[in-house]
Design a protein that fits this description.
The chain has 187 residues and is α/β, with parallel strands linked by helices. 29% of the residues lie in helices and 26% in strands. It has six helices and seven strands. Strands 2-3-4-5-7 form a five-stranded mixed β-barrel. It is globular. The two termini are 27 Å apart. Pfam families: Fumerase_C. One of its GO terms (molecular function) is hydro-lyase activity. It comes from Candidatus Choladousia intestinavium.
Length: 187
């Protein structure tokens, strides 16, 4: 099903999304990769606040390239999500609900998604320049020393994504494989 959603990604909104849905996302998202996630999780372990309010937040696993003159941001394609698997359950426990990236997730991440009503959105790898066109504002908010991995606040409009894993743990990667194999056996 095709849906247009406005962030923040509340529990109620997350529960309406199903694996396989095409969504066009509008609202505020945050960027971070493994180095930024490591710092955020270390801060949480120390009982410190994060540089943004994680409640109902969506985090895009991206290390954008520098913006050229006249651009909001450079190329902004997704990075492999598995590098954040060690941190994703802690981030969801802190309130973050949405994740945008590419690639499979570990079972403990899927379990945390079910516990905290998380949603994993897939963005198309190799389409960073096209995805950057959906980004209307970009603000560096923390960890400037990490360069491309710094924590940024973005405002996006109609960012095209696919729900890969929904809040019930339904996984498009697994279901898609099963459907494909079944169709091959029927021929």
């Amino acid at each position: 099903m095709e849906k247009r959603i406005k962030l923040p990604l509340t529990r109620e909104l997350a529960r309406t999304l199903e694996a396989g849905d095409t969504v066009y996302v509008t609202g505020t998202i945050y960027t971070s990769r493994d180095a930024g996630h490591k710092r955020m999780c270390e801060a949480l372990e120390r009982g410190e606040s994060l540089p943004f309010d994680p409640e109902d937040a969506t985090i895009y696993y991206v290390g954008p390239t520098p913006a050229k003159p006249g651009q909001v941001i450079g190329s902004a394609g997704p990075t492999t999500s598995g590098r954040m698997d060690a941190y994703a359950p802690a981030m969801m426990k802190a309130g973050a609900r949405g994740m945008i990236g590419k690639g499979a997730r570990l079972p403990q991440v899927v379990e945390a998604m079910k516990q905290y009503d998380g949603v994993y959105f897939g963005a198309i790898g190799g389409a960073g320049a096209l995805l950057a066109k959906c980004i209307k504002k970009s603000e560096l908010i923390a960890y400037e020393d990490l360069g491309a991995e710094a924590l940024r606040k973005l405002y996006v409009e109609d960012m095209p994504l696919v729900v890969i894993i929904d809040s019930r743990g339904r996984n498009l990667y697994e279901e898609g494989r099963k459907a494909y194999l079944k169709s091959c056996q029927e021929k």
